[in-house]
Each structure stands twice: as structure tokens, then as C-alpha cells.
């Protein structure tokens, strides 16, 4: 039995989902480290990591929107 042929857009939809999930994991990791930095008294570092987490989440949102736009 052979697999159905995937189009480039099918592959892209799969990649976009993968990238979004991977990005979400990174954002959560940045938030976790921001908490640790804040507890250690490194407020500026914590704030910058939170900004990085927010920017990463914005990218994840773009990936989700791109996937929806394919369909």
C-alpha cells in the first residue's frame, strides 16, 4: 500500500504546525528562565527574556495564521 502523494502545501501545513509547537516550547522555556532570573535579582534579564517569549509567541501566532490561510 502506498501513501497518498503530499502536495507542497500539505507539507507546508505540517511544517507550520511543527514550527508553532517548537516555538511554543521555546517561549515557555524563556518564561521559566525569566522567573529564575527574577528570583535571582536579575530584573533586566528577566524582562528581556519575557520580551523574547512574547516575540516568540507572536511568531507562533503567525505560523498558525499561515496554516489557516493554506486551507
In a nutshell, what does this entry contain?
The protein is mainly α and 71 residues long. 85% of the residues lie in helices and 0% in strands. The chain is elongated, with a radius of gyration of 17 Å.
Would you mind describing this structure in some detail?
- This protein is mainly α and 71 residues long.
- It has helices spanning 8-39, 43-70.
- The mean pLDDT is 95.
The helix content is over 70%
Number of H- or I-type helical stretches: 2
Overall pLDDT score: 95
The largest sheet, given as strand count, sense and whether it forms a barrel, is: none
What is the terminal separation in angstroms? 27 Å
Write the layout of secondary structure elements.
Elements: H1 8-39, H2 43-70
Any descriptors?
71 residues; mainly alpha; 2 helices; 85% helix; elongated
